[in-house]
Amino acid sequence: MKKQRFDQLTRTVSSEVSRRGLRKTLTGTAMTGLLVAVGLALGLGGAMGGAWGASAGAQATPTTACQDSTPEQNAELVRRYFEEVYNSGRLDLVDELLADDFGRSNAANPHENEPGNDDDVRRVQAWLDAFPDLHITVDDLFATGDRVAVRSTWTGTQRGPLAQFGAPATDRRAEWGATIVYRAECGQLKENWVTMDFLSLFRQLGIVADDELADADPPTVATPAP
User: What is the mean pLDDT of the chain?
Assistant: First the structure.
């Protein structure tokens, strides 16, 4: 009942303000103050408080935008990802360091990105299964804005198969390089672009033999160069 009386009061006061030509001179705050004063005089405080509070709550739209991290903080994310996740086998840190929708781009070894981080954990685990002593050394690292570029050297002994390439275990030790660019967002790594020297890795493991490269046929192209 009080809510109905308050709504009626609002319409009455607004109509009277317009009729008297006061609409342009009353700001929103002044109009609200006028309604509150009249409502309190009529004993409608409870109804007005609820209606006013609901109106204020409807207008308040809290934002949850994250803060941008600094280039130094982004560089530290990459260092931690290599040192703690790969070198120390801390797979439990993947969720902390990678965004849930982290996207990986690697033309030489395509990765189908899935929601969440389970696919990222499986990928790290696959490398550690193949190279239990895998160690990544950061040779160069540059950070600017939200991007981090890192040149790294990977070393390890292949004790398990490389399932993604259908290659069995060789028990051979290898050393190969990778250059990766990361993009950070909201204090996590959001996506990356990978260039890895798989040919050097395959030659050291014997997956691709030197004699296979020596007697390989000359490359052909569908359309001759002009």
Answer: 80
